[in-house]
Amino acid sequence: MKNLRDLSYEDLLAEVAELGEKPYRAEQLYGWIFHKNATEIDQMTDISKVLRERLKGEYYIKGIETLDVKTSPDGTRKFLSGLEDGCRIESVLIPEDDRLTLCVSSQAGCALGCQFCMTGMSGFVRNLRLSELTGQVFSAMSLLNEGERITNIVLMGMGEPLANYDNVVKFLKILSDGKGFNFSHNKITVSTAGLVPAIRKFGYDSKVNLAVSLNATTDEVRSRIMPINKKYPIDELLSALRAYPLHGKKYITIEYVLIKNVNDSIEDANRLIKILRGVECKINLIAFNPYPGTKFQRPEEQRVNYFHKIISDAGYVVIVRASKGREIQAACGQLKGAYDLEENAPGQ
Ligand code: SF4
Asked: 120 CB less than 6 Å from ligand 1?
């Protein structure tokens, strides 16, 4: 038995061909699954009863189960979902001004082991399936208050999205498809810790916004806090970004989590200016959001502001992002506030 929510449009085309049905059946199924959020095959009333019975013999529809929701005083909602095999993942709804951003997890755990990240410290379990990626969007929709609408989607929760490449690319296609969730490319952002070969490919497989978690200005420091840097050092990463196709957008977002006495010196700020030359980018500075058990500390506000001033005076677009939902530890993965991306729309 296959879960219909694990199948992209192309997968459904192959399935209906296998069943000896016409290709338009794939479109019908796709619309019911991802646009109308059907939870039972019997809801698909424009499909004959005979075919529905046949489908029921081979397919089912299953999403994910919301186990817990925590709401922060600033309106941030973190929700915990249970998966079929007992894994648990987190997603977060973040309200800010006129935006409501959903931060989605792409893996259960993460293999990259970034030292400042709660997920990175707890190891890797597995890639999320397409049904579990789209399931987070359906779950978030069911938590919305009256009149609320998700405006932006960011893949910055648990996991490295580009390490779950095929499912993530399928998910992005469904998110931006008018017959799927119908979000604009400009409202979707994928954040990576810097898997260089995947970045080079991704620029041609998707048109969504790209954010890169840089967090250091020397290989020595970056390799210490982000072990992936030993494989793909800063130079290699930045040259992939210089070559990245922007699809009419103005920039890539560089995320820089400021950690006290690790990467927040004046020398770091000056080096950052230099190493980013030639990268069409906007910089998001995020003061580290400490969590229980971490060895790292948040820098003083004065230091954050000074760091910001140095970068800004050099002519970069740089924003200090708030860590939302501090009360509910909504600081997983790269979720640190880089949800301000719609000004990256073409022509702005
Ligand atoms: S910051 Fe992202 S890539 Fe790094 S360990 Fe955490 S989840 Fe993985």
From this structure: yes
What's the CA-to-centroid distance between 47 and ligand 1, angstroms? Answer: 43
For the question of residue 148 being annotated catalytic, the response is: no
Catalytic residue, from 90, 132, 160, 255: name it: 90
Distances (CA, A) of 57 to 11, 54, 117, 206, 332: 18, 5, 43, 35, 40
Give residue 117 CA to ligand 1 midpoint distance, Å: 6
Catalytic residue among 103, 110, 281, 332: 332
Using 50, 70 and 90 to split pLDDT, how confident is the model at 213? very high
CA separation for the pair 237, 318 (Å, rounded): 20
Tokens of 79: 């929700």
CATH number, residue 55: 1.10.150.530
135 and 91 together in one domain = yes
Is the minimum distance from the CB of 227 to ligand 1 under 6 angstroms? no
∠ at Cα 128 (325, 175), nearest 5°? Answer: 75
Write out pLDDT tens, residues 108-159. 999 999 998 888 877 899 999 999 999 999 999 999 999 999 999 999 989 9
Range of the domain at 112: 65-344
173 and 251 part of one domain: yes
Q: 117 CB under 6 A from ligand 1?
A: yes
Residues 17 and 120 in one domain: no
181-195 confidence digits (pLDDT tens): 999 999 999 999 999
Please tell me whether residues 146 and 18 are part of one structural domain: no
